[in-house]
Design a protein that fits this description.
The protein is mostly helical. The chain has helices spanning 3-9, 13-24, 32-45, 50-83, 90-119. The radius of gyration is 18 Å and the shape is elongated.
Length: 124
């Protein structure tokens, strides 16, 4: 590969690839590796250029959007758990639990698509 192709890809590409992989492995690791991926993305943020910089920004943005949605869903699950004592919260508990599962699946799919895009030199 020529120096021009490497320069077009941007510095920090390897870090962005590793961060996407850590994001993908977040479910089997009980979300511990996603935090490592986030730290890596933040560390790579200043030195990444070109396409890699866009992927790093996409990784950080994806993490925080999913983080806040997850916090809201856990709050709704807690309220539903309390309301389930009176039997009115059980359907909501199931609904919010399924939504939490869907958010987790969406995060993983988005991470796989981001990794594939980066490996194919496409924007996130």
């Amino acid at each position: 590969m020529t120096d021009q192709n490497l320069e077009a890809r941007g510095a920090g590409r390897d870090g962005a690839v590793v961060a996407w992989i850590l994001y993908i492995l977040s479910i089997p690791s009980a979300n511990v590796l996603v935090l490592v991926g986030l730290v890596l993305a933040y560390a790579n943020r200043g030195s990444a250029t070109g396409l890699a910089a866009q992927h790093v920004e996409a990784q950080i943005s994806l993490f925080w959007s999913v983080f806040w949605v997850t916090i809201v869903l856990w709050g709704l699950i807690a309220v539903s758990a309390v309301a389930s004592v009176f039997l009115i919260g059980i359907p909501f508990l199931i609904l919010f639990g399924l939504l939490l599962l869907l958010v987790s699946i969406w995060f993983t799919v988005k991470s796989v698509l981001g990794l594939l895009a980066l490996l194919n030199d496409r924007p996130a």
